[in-house]
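Worked example 3. Consider a protein that binds adenosine-5'-triphosphate.
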Amino acid sequence: MSEEMITHSAEETVRWGREFSKRLKAPVLVLLTGDLGTGKTTLTKGIVSGLGAANENDVTSPTFTLVHVYGRLAKVYHADLYRIESFHDFETLGMEDMFTTPSVAILEWSERFPLQSPWPQIRVRLEHLGGDARRITVL
Ligand SMILES: Nc1ncnc2c1ncn2[C@@H]1O[C@H](COP(=O)(O)OP(=O)(O)OP(=O)(O)O)[C@@H](O)[C@H]1O
Ligand SMILES: [Mg+2]
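Given these inputs, the predicted complex is written out as C-alpha cells:
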C-alpha cells in the first residue's frame, strides 16, 4: 500500500500528520525520510499532537538534542539521527530506553544509522515540489 498526498502549507502538513497518527498503534517506528526542510519536524508536530502527547507548538526539532520524549503514559519519542555516527552515540543519548516499552518512535534521518528493531515500521517520504508544495508518500 503506497499512498500519496500533496500539501501546500506547513499547516496542511500538520493537519495531515494528525489524521495519519490515528493509524499508529504502539509499538511502531515511523521513519521519516526527505531532504532538509521538506517538513519532517513539521509533520511530527501533527503526529505528536494527534496522539495527544503534546501541543504542536511544544514539538521542536531535536537536531541538537537528538531525542525528545513527549507524553506521560503513552510515550512518543522523536529523534533526529542526522548527527548520529555510532551505536555508542545512540546509547549515550538515551534512545535505547525507547525500546523498553511499546511506544511510537518517530525518527528523522533514520537511514543514516541502521536500527535493529523488531517493531513494525512505517516509512514516510517527504519531497519538495517547489514553493510550499510537498509530496508526502506513505511507503
Ligand atoms: N507544505 C509544507 N509542509 C511542511 N513544511 C512546509 C510546507 N510549506 C512550507 N513549509 C516550511 O518548510 C519548513 C520545514 O521545516 P522542517 O523543520 O519541518 O523540515 P525537516 O524536514 O524537519 O528539516 P531537517 O532535515 O533540517 O530536520 C518549515 O519552515 C515550514 O514552515
Ligand atoms: Mg527536522
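Take a moment to read the result before moving on. DSSP finds three helices and seven strands in the chain. The beta strands are 3-7, 28-33, 67-70, 76-80, 104-108, 121-128, 134-138.
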